[in-house]
């Protein structure tokens, strides 16, 4: 698999997205995808991405457009405050922004600038970074829904990571894996840095199941130190409501100062090539996904 480098992936993905996806799945799970009979969660995610209409995925994976859908679904109170949206960084009027906020692009992952003190922000460097991120083509050829998102910049409320159930260097990210309108697994991530992240895998009743995870130098065992979220039941109910029309989707949340916040919706978690769950776990989750006929 070493020959499938980044440049080669782009070329191969242009020629045959399914072949590229199958090769990458082989690297993650040890076998190629049977497109006529996909079984694991990875395989079914990729099957859905390349064999169904993903127009709605585009709207809901867009960190700006998803906000209007949350309002339509009656979940507006879960959204962090929105301070602005722009097509290019030059249009941002920093004088109108509060002292603390977060800047991000709506189409990528990790394209964020956390501003804890506006007075210390190098505005010109921030504009350059944001414009560079706007040029990024996010998403693999087998993720066409990302490629259709119009890149924009948004500024949102900066959630206070110090007001969480336990001390964490980052926001605790509760990732709910939903299949056909039901949360089957919650993957909680905290103490995130470039070097690694603590991860806990829970059933919806918050029982701890480390045997479902693959721990590495980067994905480190959180050792069940997270208490159940105060809003766990609301998290499950909202997830059921938002995911009921989709065979699978991951919905992320934060809980700050006792309040539940919506994070994002992801239809191709880890680009559909997850390697942080065991193969048995991926097959078990895949069994929960009912594909359209």
What would you say this structure looks like, in words?
With 293 residues, the protein is an alpha+beta fold. It has a domain at 81-156. The protein is 30% helix and 20% strand. The chain has helices at 6-15, 17-29, 41-51, 55-61, 65-72, 123-134, 144-147, 232-243, 279-288, and strands spanning 82-86, 101-105, 112-115, 153-156, 173-179, 182-190, 197-202, 219-221, 248-256, 259-266. The strands form 2 sheets. It has a 6-stranded mixed β-sheet. Strand 9 (248-256) and strand 10 (259-266) form a beta hairpin. Helix 1 crosses helix 2 (17-29). The longest helix has 13 residues, at 17-29. The protein is globular. It comes from Xylanibacter ruminicola (Prevotella ruminicola). Pfam families: ATPgrasp_TupA (PF14305). This is TupA-like ATPgrasp.
Describe the secondary-structure layout:
Elements: H1 6-15, H2 17-29, H3 41-51, H4 55-61, H5 65-72, E1 82-86, E2 101-105, E3 112-115, H6 123-134, H7 144-147, E4 153-156, E5 173-179, E6 182-190, E7 197-202, E8 219-221, H8 232-243, E9 248-256, E10 259-266, H9 279-288
Helix pairs in contact: 1-2, 2-3, 3-9
């Amino acid at each position: 698999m070493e020959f499938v480098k980044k440049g080669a992936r782009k070329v191969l993905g242009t020629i045959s997205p399914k072949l590229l996806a199958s090769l990458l799945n082989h690297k993650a799970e040890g076998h190629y995808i049977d497109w006529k009979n996909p079984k694991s969660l990875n395989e079914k995610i990729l099957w859905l991405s390349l064999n169904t209409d993903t127009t709605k995925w585009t709207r809901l994976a867009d960190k700006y457009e998803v906000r209007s859908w949350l309002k339509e679904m009656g979940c507006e109170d879960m959204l962090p405050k929105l301070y602005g949206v722009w097509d290019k960084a030059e249009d941002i009027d920093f004088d109108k922004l509060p002292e603390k906020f977060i800047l991000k692009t709506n189409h990528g992952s990790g394209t964020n600038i956390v501003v804890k003190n506006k007075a210390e922000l190098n505005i010109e460097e921030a504009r350059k970074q944001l414009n560079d991120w706007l040029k990024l083509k996010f998403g693999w050829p087998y993720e066409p829904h990302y490629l259709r998102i119009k890149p924009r910049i948004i500024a949102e409320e900066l959630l206070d990571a110090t007001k969480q159930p336990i001390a964490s260097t980052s926001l605790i990210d509760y990732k709910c894996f939903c299949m056909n309108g039901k949360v089957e697994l919650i993957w909680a991530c905290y103490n995130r840095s470039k070097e690694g992240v603590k991860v806990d895998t829970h059933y919806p009743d918050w029982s701890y199941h480390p045997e479902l995870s693959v721990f590495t130098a980067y994905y480190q065992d959180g050792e069940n130190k997270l208490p159940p979220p105060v809003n766990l039941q609301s998290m499950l109910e909202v997830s059921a409501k938002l995911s009921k029309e989709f065979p699978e989707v991951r919905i992320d949340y934060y809980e700050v100062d006792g309040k539940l916040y919506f994070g994002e919706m992801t239809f191709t978690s880890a680009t559909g090539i997850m390697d942080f769950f065991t193969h048995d776990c991926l097959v078990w989750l895949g069994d929960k996904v009912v594909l359209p006929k």
